[in-house]
Amino acid sequence: MNANYTIQSGVFIFLAFVLEPPPSTTPASKPVKLSESLLNSKVQSKRADLKADIKDELKALFSDISEISKDVAKHIKTTSAGVDDLCKSISKHLLAIRSLGLSSADVVELYASSLLNELSDPPSNQFIAGAGGNIDIFAAAVNQQIANARKEALLAIRAVASPAFDQLEHSPIVVRLGDLPDSIEIAPTPQLTASRPHPKLLQILVAGATSNRFTQKDGVLSICGCADKANGDVKIDIEGPGAVADSKTATPDNENRFSATFSGTNGLVEGNYVIKVSQGAASAQTTIGIP
Q1: What is the pLDDT of residue 183?
Q2: Cβ contacts of 67-74, under 8 Å, gap ≥ 24
Q3: 31: which DSSP letter?
Q4: pLDDT on residue 27
Q5: Sign of CA dihedral 262, 264, 268, 273
Q6: What's the pLDDT band for 170 if we cut at 50, 70, 90?
Q7: How far is 109 from 187, CA to CA, in rounded Å?
Q8: What strands, in cross-sheet order, belong to the sheet with 271-279?
Q9: Which of 22, 158, 215, 235 has the fewest CB atoms within 10 Å distance of its CB?
Q10: Global pTM?
């Protein structure tokens, strides 16, 4: 009898060991409220980080504007060289600011995706694109910070560069920023484990123009933009008063930026110009006037 008990006990113990479920390999689930709280903390943190990073980038841009303006006022640089350098600096820093916004959006999107992967219940509106929750609020904040940075750049040009160009050279300067590319959006999914690719759109970032107010037909136009280097050269065409027309080709650099300066044979006539850029089937357009 003891033997039978021993055998039965042994069988029982063996079966219990075999039937015990293996350790779970899926991540521990989180309740919705906890995930919402974690997402909110990440959003607030990245908004503060982005604000500080954009402030640093604008500070670098303002320094460039000041130095270029001083060089023009002191005749170290001609106004045509000054407007060209100014446009290149603006385009570089505005692209950097947009990259900061994209990187911040990627961080939040990936973090939200990881939280979705651990939810024990269906996601709340805080995680749903277009529902007005934290995801949408953060995307809107990123786009607004980028737009505000552009405004600050223009104000700095008007406050610092314009007087410097005009004071000694008698050469007013006009700067126009191109349209923003598509707004940044965030749409987390449980399967998202890496940042989505961001297409490099053909875009005119900035156009600048200047001329001596006491001399006719001595205008200069400078255009800076971005384009995917892999898609080849960019064609830039300008059309102005009196059937003035000119065309140039620019090759995007390793940062996917391109630029071109137009001054005609002896300068461009004053007035308004249409600037068109094209790369394959893609195109963009803006206008600017030579004062």
Answers
A1: 82
A2: 68/161, 69/160, 69/161, 69/163, 69/164, 69/165, 70/164, 72/164, 72/165, 72/168, 72/169, 73/164, 73/165, 73/167, 73/168, 73/169, 74/168
A3: -
A4: 52
A5: negative
A6: confident
A7: 7
A8: 244-250, 234-240, 271-279, 282-290
A9: 22
A10: 0.83
The pair phi, psi for residue 283, each rounded to 5°, is -150, 160
Type of residue numbered 80 = S
The token pair that represents 286 in the structure block = 């803006």
Cβ–Cβ < 8 Å for 161, 68: yes
Render pLDDT for 229-251 as a digit per residue (tens, 0 to 9).
999 999 999 999 988 899 999 99
Q: Which of 155, 149, 159 shows the shortest CA–CA distance to 69? A: 159
Residues shown for the chain: 291
CA 120/CA 25 separation, integer angstroms: 15
Evaluate whether 261 touches 84 at the Cβ level (below 8 Å): yes
Domain boundaries, the chain: 30-290
Lowest mean pLDDT, pick from 31-45, 69-83, 131-145: 69-83
CA distance 54 to 145: 8
